[in-house]
Amino acid sequence: MHIRRLQLTGFRTYPKLDLALDAGRLLFLGDNAQGKSNLLEAIYLLASGRSVRAANDGELIGWGAESEGQPFTRLQADIARRDGPIALETLVVGPSNAPGAPSTRAGKRFRVNGIPRRAIDFVGQLRAVLFTADDLELISGPPAVRRAYLDAALSQLDRAYYAALQRYGRIMQQRNASLRRIREGIAGLDELALWDDSFTREGATIIAGRINAVVRLAGLAATAHGELSGALEALELAYEPQLGEEWSRLLPTQATPAAVQPLFAAALTAQRRRETAAGVSLAGPHRDDISIKLNGVAAASFGSRAQIRTAALALRLAEARLLMTNADPPVLLLDDIVSELDESRRASVLAGVSGFDQVWFTATANASLPPGFRASCRTYTVHAGSITET
Q: How much is the pTM?
């Protein structure tokens, strides 16, 4: 799988971009704040349907990107895949600037081969893995970062998982509203019955998918970490569901939604008093985490910065290899990563990405890169939202 053509209109620093591409290694060089990270963000948005950097969709729209008073940005890509080419388009439309127009939030629309599609039918048509300097947060950041890591990979792999994730979020909002009404004395406990069956059904799909994925990721990450560290340390991953110890320990290592749902339902019953007092849902996949250990101790607490960086790289390589299973290999996006590594880890990362059809690298213009690496790449210069091949 690789991107043959990328077109951006009004996307962040890119007023207009039309870039023809080949498979292989692509190196984008430029000073800071010229648009290198924005370029990779655009590709990841086309793969996952979401931005990893924007707090809201409106931030994606470049300054002055308007059509008849309606701010917008359009991202288009032609993708080469084993089962045939495909054209993808994401349109982000902001609120109208016309006098008297209603105040609305920016929203996304998707097309596949020119036909409007729902997000569930769009996400995963292009598969991509993004490596950034912020990946240290995978190890030392809050649980939400690690949940997002799992969700991003599984949403590209499994449409049923992505759909369950979207439904679960909506149901939880409604359930939390009911819990607040119960706490305030304006509703009874029977109101939770409106939500609990669908809440546990969708949550069980998420929990089962994550359990099975972490089992696979654990092996892939351990192998990748051995390659990166010279097998000096052992990396261990374990899924940590938040259903309460009594119910979490009963979850099978190879899970199905049908096996998980009654355990999740029992956990909710056990938490009923605490939930109604708090006014929020206290058990479920929205609170889960991944345990990450090096030689048996918590990596975040005891790992050095170099060890944490190596563990984070291993997690991204594991994600890439997971997405490679029974499918086209994903497009890899490495945002200013190679130049920050020591010689040994850099060689290991480059060896680890050698089996992928297309790999995008970014680096500053004065970055110290091995001559052999530069020679293996098609090189482009990024400057002020324009890209030229060098």
A: 0.90
